3-dehydroquinate synthase (Caenispirillum bisanense), 377 residues
Amino acid sequence: MSDAALDPAETLRVELGDRSYDIAVGGGLLAEAGARMAPVLRQKRAFVVTDATVAPLHLGRLTASLDAAGIRHDTHILPAGEATKSFAHLESLLDAMLAAKCERGTMIVALGGGVIGDITGFAASVLLRGVDFVQVPTTLLSQVDSSVGGKTGINTRHGKNLVGTFHQPRLVLIDTDTLTTLPRRELLAGYAEVVKYGLIDSPGFFAWLEETGAALIDGDTAARRRAILTSCAAKARVVQADEREGGVRALLNLGHTFGHALEAECGYGETLLHGEAVAVGMLMAFELSARMGLAPAADVERLRAHLAAVGLPVVPPRLEGRRMDADILVSHMASDKKVADGKVTFVLAHGIGRAFLCRDVDPAVLRGVVADFVAAS
Ligand SMILES: NC(=O)c1ccc[n+]([C@@H]2O[C@H](COP(=O)([O-])OP(=O)(O)OC[C@H]3O[C@@H](n4cnc5c(N)ncnc54)[C@H](O)[C@@H]3O)[C@@H](O)[C@H]2O)c1
Ligand SMILES: O=C(O)C(=O)C[C@@H](O)[C@H](O)[C@H](O)COP(=O)(O)O
Ligand SMILES: [Zn+2]
């Protein structure tokens, strides 16, 4: 049963002046997508981008709703997975948009997880010097994080998300029913970004997750909905305060300096999902904070216990049976977008719910944390 029958959709608003938009959250929203998009369309035309896994599961309901609303549409299906966030796929996507004769008024629609949202948003931001797009996220990760805030991009051989734009969607449509087809490993990866909001500035939310996280992952729709709404509201507040990451938005990067280094080393494949990398990375950031005398060791253990209890990784993976190299991981961090004057800005914490930015990390302490996590793998 759709949880729309239990509760109507709720709407949050991201206030960014003329780039403001709604985030609608509820069950069954795919079937209403055409009608819900209509007010933000410049012409009754859409170009839908999705991936090969999502297409057979959810594309039909979306295109049926576009048909019902009289919105003409083309579709483009990309391969599923992180490797799709590449120059090669960006080129093929832009080519397909141009071949379909998309116009400046055509609405680009991203139906899928964060990979589809990131590359489609990027393509929309440069197509014809910028066209509108709508996010229709179908993973927990994209519903709590990537569909909101306007960060778009692809990975390069130099590192994660190093080429991209800030381009806000015109609407975010979160159909919570799509999560029923999501594999457990992907749900868990998205859950890591939910935990992140608790760690940044909401100890009460973290405590609620300790109580409810397992049920949420097991399919409790009310808990999922509350987690999605709380996460989107938290992200919207930060993005409204600092849209282009001049300051406070960098807190949303908690765990990502470590996590992106792990992802780079794993080659952006199935070995380590983004959310899994963030889980390990957040724990490394907490461990670093504790070793610098900034956070209580008890909070590190509390975080480790919660991540492990729900089934998220707490150590880096091995690559073909071998441990990663700590020095190589540290060297990846030099490509972080938060580097200024050659120095990485880290997101550290004074404890659960008390994250802050720090530019004074002792390289030896950092190296020690990375080496110990690698040794535990
Ligand atoms: N722009 C941002 O602010 C932001 C924030 C967080 C993460 N990200 C990016 O998002 C990406 C990760 O996103 P993700 O975890 O959604 O990965 P993803 O897009 O690769 O989706 C994960 C997998 O689930 C499949 N899938 C998607 N929806 C499904 C469904 N409903 N049922 C069954 N299978 C489904 C996909 O085909 C894919 O295989 C990373 O590239 C990360 O860098 C961006
Ligand atoms: O929206 C943000 O800001 C974030 O940092 C959210 C992150 O979860 C996300 O992974 C983002 O893509 C990372 O951004 P990056 O600038 O470090 O690539
Ligand atoms: Zn992330």
